[in-house]
Specification:
Elements (H helix, E strand, L loop, with lengths): L1 H34 L4 H34 L2 E2 L4 E5 L4 E6 L6 E4 L9 E7 L3 E8 L3 E8 L6 E8 H10 L10 H12 L3 H29 L1
Antiparallel strand pairs: 1-2, 2-3, 3-4, 5-6, 6-7, 7-8
Helix pairs in contact: 1-2, 2-5
Length: 223
């Protein structure tokens, strides 16, 4: 499913790049005509390809960054139909195809906890996870940050008793994260350094192309 989304995104990005390229080339052509610069074709051509260059480099570097983060931080958001985000060092949230199908896995024994994750509550020292399994049963697990190898089954009951159990523990479903929200939160946290670095590198490369072209124009004009 994610491959289809990637193809659609690539087609949209291509259309946007072509539209912006045409717009930039028209603006550049008017500027070079008024100022009578040399290398008119090169300026117009570079203006036309700049949007595609920007989008292309963002996509390539973003893919490289996502692969690196997936390998180092364990955050994989749907590339190849697989989703993963760490809960602790030894436990993780994972899903196939869609984040709504998320379950909890353990790195120590490759165990997948029974049931689909419905809600998550993130605290300073632990993460609470509510899982729904067949038979209308719910289980509430606590994964501890101070000792990531420990998981605690706090409660297991049917839906009515489970709601009462949450209320007794002062846990509000309205404050919970869905698996999709947790995956997105993990992505933002994992990319908080990678994203600005990637944007900066792409902008610097594009500015370097333009600076080299303007330097060439100035050199030829003075000679």
């Amino acid at each position: 499913m994610q491959i289809i989304f990637l193809i659609i995104f690539a087609i949209i990005a291509l259309i946007v790049a072509i539209f912006l390229g045409i717009l930039c080339s028209i603006v550049a052509r008017r500027i070079v005509r008024r100022r009578n610069w040399s290398h008119k074709r090169m300026i117009v051509w570079l203006a036309a390809v700049t949007p595609a260059l920007f989008i292309g480099m963002e996509a390539v570097l973003g893919l490289i960054g996502s692969v690196y983060i997936s390998q180092t931080k364990g955050v994989d958001l749907g590339f190849g139909d697989y989703w993963q985000a760490p809960l602790t060092e030894s436990h993780y949230l994972c899903a196939v195809d869609m984040p709504e199908n998320a379950s909890v896995g353990s790195r120590d024994n490759d165990n997948i906890y029974e049931g689909l994750v419905q809600h998550l509550w993130v605290a300073e020292d632990s993460i609470l996870v509510a899982c729904y399994s067949s038979g209308n049963d719910y289980a509430l697990y606590a994964f501890h940050s101070h000792d990531s190898s420990i998981d605690t089954l706090l409660h297991r009951a049917d839906s009515l008793q489970f709601a009462n159990a949450l209320q007794n523990r002062n846990i509000d479903v309205k404050t919970a994260l869905t698996p999709d929200e947790y995956f997105n939160r993990a992505q933002r946290e994992a990319h908080k350094i990678e994203s600005p670095v990637r944007h900066t590198v792409v902008i610097v490369i594009i500015l370097a192309f333009w600076a080299a072209l303007l330097w060439l124009i100035k050199k030829n004009s003075s000679s």
